[in-house]
Amino acid sequence: MAASLRRPSFTTCSSPTDTDDEGVRGTCEDASICKRFAVSIGYWQDPYIQHLVRLSKERKAPEINRGYFARVHGVSQLTKAFLRKTECNCQILNLGAGMDTTFWMLKDEDLLPRKYFEIDFPMIPHPLKLQSLPDQFLLKLPSLLAFTDGHMLDSTRYAIIGADLRDIADLEEKLKKCNMSTQLPTLLIAECVLVYMTPEQSANLLKWAANSFEAAMFINYEQVNMGDRFGQIMIENLRRRQCDLAGVETCKSLESQRERLLSSGWESASAIDMMEVYSRLPRAEVIRIEALEFLDEMELLEQLMQHYCLCWATKGGSELGR
Question: Where is this region: Disordered (predicted)?
């Protein structure tokens, strides 16, 4: 067990591409901070995020908190449904994982897949999770087998990989080094990831995912309905922070989101906006979270939720997405 608690030393490096992507990495930190704040006031339970993400001194708006609750709930429900249908005899690839804590939460619920992979930019400090978490949490980690370099960690059930999702050959090579299987049913999760890639780059990733596994499901959470004034304001706000939505043209509508998945080789695809997700939340949970803080304008929440969507696609077994 001592070996599994050894805290690794991770290196960093810089490159022109790293500098270009700084704005995108900033959105990863922003999302983590928003989740941390929502957890701190009781929207959902996550005992791990407090060790990974600082608590913001700035209070987040109620519509932001409710939006993150719907996002976390929606992705979690689809993930758990996939795990139960495959009886956990599967693998998960979390693309653009950042400081996500899903692996640890699934382990607490005894819902771990055969292997869980986290992939993000090499410069995202997600490997530092193992340095940030207290020892009592690390005791839950299956024995570590190898720290292959400064941007990759591999164990029997959990791998952390630093890779650029736009470089498919490098991504695939690193995944295979960590014993990714093309035979196992595979769930791929991307939350606000594809939109930062050009349509060609995201299509390449989606096609690779559809063609690499015998049975698979892809969950995508990101913007939608971006052609109206509210969407344009969102785009302008991000541009002021040197963050360009390179793939925004694929986010025109729910239909364009479905079509990109089908045209990339997926056999079935569904897409709903986050207001629809919110309307499907368990009534008891809605009552509970709406009692946490006062929301002045419901219209603002609706506008925000109508500009994000949850999409999922399957191949080799449409029942995986039900």
Answer: 1-23
